[in-house]
Amino acid sequence: MGYVEQLLSKGETIVVRSRQHWVAWLASALTNGFIIVVSVVLGTFLEGFVRGLPSISSDLVDLLSNLVRIAAVLGGLFGAVRFGWDVLQWWAEEYLVTTRRVIQSEGIVNKRTTDSSLEKVNDVVLTQSVFGRILGYGNLEIVTGSDVGVNSLTRLRDPIIFKTAMLDQKAKLGGEYGERAPDEVSDRDVPRLIAELDELRKKGLLSDAEFDEKKAKLLSQL
Questions:
Q1: Residue-wise pLDDT tens digits, 43-80
Q2: Strand, coil or helix: what is 70?
Q3: Sign of CA pseudo-dihedral 194, 200, 204, 209
Q4: What is the spatial distance between Cα 157 and Cα 95, in angstroms, rounded to a whole number?
Q5: Is the pTM of this model over 0.70?
Q6: Domain residue spans in the chain?
Q7: Shortest CA distance to 10 belongs to which of 98, 105, 119?
Q8: Under DSSP, is residue 33 helix (H, G, I), strand (E, B) or coil?
Q9: Taking the CA atoms of the chain, what radius of gyration do you get in angstroms?
Q10: Euclidean distance between CA atoms 41 and 194, whole angstroms
């Protein structure tokens, strides 16, 4: 079982699982690739320069040449390890839509998760550049009842699919927990729905005020 799966509450399932588009580590690839190339070119140049010096002994030439090679190898390894670490961080960061919330999980060793209950989501702002529309990525900002973007998902892969799934689950969650039309809820459903709302409140997915409001709506239908 993965780390995120351990965070799911009873009955909660993952609907969509995504992460940042590969363009998120493109800058790292270019930067660290440049470091590797410079290390190789500069090392080759310096070694040739050292071997061309006429006034030093062959032993000193060999020593300096070996030092230059070591420095070039270390520079190349630094760029490769740095790029590998960036890719691992990219892979460890996940964005998920579950049947109850949106979860953002990041970190390789030290994990950090941020989530927004679908009940509290008021709007979702999708921004895509020209390149984003061509390559299939964009930025999503999830706006809650306080009109503050709690989750900002940058360079998200397939953002339209992610947004649609989130809004669909929000609509289903609303229908399941008391926002359906009065004639769709029978008297027998009300106690069960109130119990389910209470479970959400205990798990922190609903505030006390939201619980009281939805409970009052259900009781008014009796």
A1: 999 888 888 877 778 888 888 888 999 999 999 999 99
A2: helix
A3: negative
A4: 10
A5: no
A6: 4-21+98-220, 25-91
A7: 98
A8: helix
A9: 27
A10: 70
